[in-house]
Design a protein that fits this description.
Shape: elongated
Strand order of the largest sheet: 2-4-5-7-6
Number of domains: 3
Oligomer: single chain
Structural class: alpha+beta
Helix content: 55-70%
Distance between the termini: 31 Å
Amino acid sequence: MAFMKLSSEGILWFVRIRWLACAAVFVTTWLTSSVLAVVPHPMPLYLVGCAMAGYNLLFEFGRRRAAGEVNVERNILLQVSCDLIALTLLLYFTDVSRNPFLFFFVFHMIIASMYLHGSTPYFFAAAAALLVGAVMLAEYFGWIPAFPLQFPSDPELPSARLDGMRLLGVFVAFASTLWITVYFTTSIHRYVDRAHAEIRQKEKMLGIGQLVAGIGHQIANPLDGVQNCLRRIGERVKDDARLTEYVQMMTEALGRIESTATRVQAFARPRGIEMQSTEVNAAVEATLQVLRADDRPNIGIETRLNDVPPVQGDPYTLQEVLFNLCTNALAAMPDGGTLTLRSYALGRKDEEQMGSVAVDVVDTGVGIPRLHLEKIFEPFFTTRGESGGTGLGLGLCRMLISEMGGRITVRSALGQGTVFTVVLYPAENATATKQS
């Protein structure tokens, strides 16, 4: 799942926040060293603050050169890395194990999770834990000089050796906090991005429906007049066999146009989905009965239907979605292959709803390029334009599954095939939710 789109505004916000952080470093260092007398060695902190201001100035000057999402992400990756090193140095020079600002790394991890993709935020969580752990370990064995804070409650003659158990406890709490922060932030981000994509898809489909309805209406009105005129012409040329044949051909052509306009208006008309307990395996078998009516000797159809609980949905809508996905799968195997439909219970594996049921539509076709995977659900996007694809089928499938409370995902590899997965929630859970 993709995260938020990166832009130069994100870099600018990051730079502005860092100016505030630089100011906080200087003010806090002055306050804790000159006023509170807690920090006995403030000079390294001032130097780190100056270094932060210096590279922040470079980032501000280079912000305009960061054009495109890839360059912006690379720029933010570099900024997060510099901040990670700067924050580690600030903590090292202020008694890292006893510094109350140690957990400021949490904000660092939140920013990394907001702007960086994939497993990169987890990499930064691991890097922060390793850096802080290395500093603690080196101080414990005396490999590097220590910079202890001087709190009023500290004894006059502090112990020269650090408490190993205390260091271990602080490190475990610190590392686990970072990982939990990254996990929850990325999970929330995935959920928000998925919800935003569904809303955006519904808005597109609604706009397309209104447009299509208007086009169908504009076609239907003059079409009635043309058919009436042609009917009268046909009555006048009854005695001419050739003209009668031409009139018949035009009548049939107008009939096909009228049928197309009717289907277009039916597509644009809001569909009523009757939510009820639905047997997934029955919907799969009903879909296969329609597919087997076609003569496809070079394509094998397999089913792997497990014993799954009923789901909350509309059986006819589910059949329509599965039929559309199977049609696309067959079109993706022009030289033959295998179409596999399998159903299985996700159980506790589903992050959104325990007990959900999944249906996979698997083909061994040509596959979908990675660049197209994020676009295939967008209306009018199609790779089968020459063969009659309209680009509306997958967008409609996603909207219908979303209206049933489920979701649809896709995985693909070029030359290996594609897997569309429809996930629906169990009927009993959905019913309980409605009643509550």
